[in-house]
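User: Reviewer 2 asked us to show a designed sequence for the structure in our supplementary figure. I'm pasting the C-alpha cells here. Could you produce the per-position amino acids so we can include them in the response letter?
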C-alpha cells in the first residue's frame, strides 16, 4: 500500500521535491537572530535583534523582525536593508501600510511617521527534521497612537521553512497568520503597498542588469498593478553562472489570488539598487480583519543561481498548491 501511494504521487511533486540535495538545513542562533544553514552555508537569517540606523538617521527606522540576508546557493546576497532612498525597507518583510482602526488611519510600514510599526516579539517554535528546518515567531503590529491597552493591533505568527530542492536550489516557505483581539476589528485599506510579501533586492541590481517576469508574461515595465501566480526576479551576480535570483509563488488560497503586484517601474530612483517587488493582496480591495479570527497568507520562494524558466516556475507553483 505504501508503494502504491508513492507511485501515485503527482509527477510534479516527485520532480520538484523528490530529487532534493543530500544537504541538510539546520538552525543556528547568532547575535542578530536565527540563521538557516544549508550544510555549512548560511542561506537566510531571520533577525530578532533591533537593527540600529546609521548615525544621523531618525532612530524610529530601527527595527527587528525581517529576513536579511537571503543568499543564493552560491552565497550571493540577494536582499538589502535600510537603503538611503527608503530606510524603512528591510529585505523580506510585509507590514500593512494603511489600516483603519477605531476611525483612525494607522501606518505600520512608514516607520518615521510614528503611527505604527512591526517588531519581533518571541520565538514560538524551532524544528529540524528530515533535512528541513522550520522557525515560528510572533511579530507584534503596534498602533502607536492608541491607548496603552489597545496598542497591540495585530498578532502575527510567521512560519519560515527552508529545504533543498532540485538543481542545487532551495526553497523558503513564508506563511503569515494574523489575528486581532480589538473588539471592532481592523480594516486593511486598499493601497498599492502593504502586507503580503515585500522584497527589496540587493543594491547591485538595477534597470540595466536585472529582469522581472510574471506568470502572465509581464516584465518590469508592465507588471505593476497586475495579478500573478508567481514572479521571477533575476539579476547579475558573482555566481559561476553569472546570474542569481528568486521565484516568489503566491498560494491559490491567498486573499485576492491571483495576487496583485507592486513592482517599481524602471525609472524609479537610481539605476542601481532600484528593484522592489511585492505581492499586495489589498492593492485593489480592502480586507476586513474581524476579532478573534485567524487569516493566513502563504508564499514560497525558490532561490537559485543561473536561470529559472517560466516552465519551471509553473511546475514549482503546481507543486506548491498541491
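Assistant: Here is a per-position design you can include in the supplement:
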Amino acid at each position: 500500500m505504501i508503494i502504491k501511494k508513492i507511485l501515485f504521487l503527482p509527477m510534479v511533486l516527485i520532480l520538484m521535491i523528490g530529487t532534493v540535495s543530500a544537504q541538510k538545513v539546520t538552525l543556528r542562533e547568532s547575535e542578530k537572530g536565527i540563521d538557516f544553514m544549508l550544510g555549512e552555508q548560511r542561506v537566510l537569517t531571520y533577525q530578532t535583534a533591533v537593527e540600529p540606523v546609521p548615525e544621523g538617521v531618525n532612530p524610529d527606522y530601527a527595527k527587528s523582525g525581517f529576513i536579511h540576508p537571503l543568499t543564493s546557493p552560491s552565497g550571493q546576497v540577494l536582499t538589502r536593508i535600510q537603503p538611503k532612498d527608503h530606510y524603512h525597507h528591510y529585505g523580506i518583510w510585509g507590514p500593512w501600510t494603511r489600516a483603519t482602526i477605531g476611525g483612525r488611519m494607522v501606518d505600520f510600514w512608514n516607520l518615521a511617521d510614528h503611527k505604527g510599526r512591526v517588531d519581533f516579539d518571541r520565538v514560538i517554535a524551532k524544528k529540524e527534521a528530515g533535512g528541513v528546518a522550520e522557525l515560528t515567531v510572533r511579530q507584534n503590529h503596534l498602533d502607536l497612537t492608541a491607548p496603552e491597552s489597545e496598542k497591540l493591533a495585530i498578532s502575527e505568527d510567521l512560519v519560515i521553512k527552508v529545504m533543498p530542492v532540485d538543481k542545487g536550489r532551495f526553497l523558503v516557505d513564508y506563511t503569515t497568520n494574523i489575528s486581532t483581539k480589538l473588539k471592532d476589528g481592523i480594516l486593511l485599506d486598499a493601497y498599492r503597498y502593504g502586507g503580503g510579501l515585500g522584497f527589496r533586492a540587493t543594491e547591485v541590481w538595477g534597470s540595466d542588469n536585472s529582469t522581472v517576469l510574471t506568470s502572465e508574461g509581464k516584465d518590469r515595465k508592465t507588471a505593476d498593478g497586475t495579478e500573478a501566480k508567481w514572479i521571477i526576479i533575476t539579476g547579475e551576480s558573482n555566481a559561476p553562472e553569472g546570474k542569481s535570483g528568486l521565484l516568489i509563488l503566491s498560494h491559490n488560497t491567498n486573499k485576492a489570488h491571483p495576487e496583485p503586484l507592486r513592482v517599481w517601474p524602471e525609472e524609479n530612483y537610481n539605476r542601481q539598487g532600484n528593484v522592489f517587488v511585492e505581492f499586495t493582496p489589498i492593492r485593489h480591495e480592502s480586507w476586513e480583519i474581524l476579532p478573534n479570527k485567524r487569516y493566513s497568507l502563504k508564499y514560497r520562494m525558490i532561490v537559485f543561481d543561473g536561470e529559472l524558466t517560466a516552465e519551471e516556475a509553473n511546475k514549482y507553483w503546481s507543486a506548491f498548491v498541491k
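For the response letter, you might also mention the following. The chain has three helices and 21 strands. Residues 23-321 form a domain with the Beta-galactosidase; Chain A, domain 5 fold (CATH 2.70.98).
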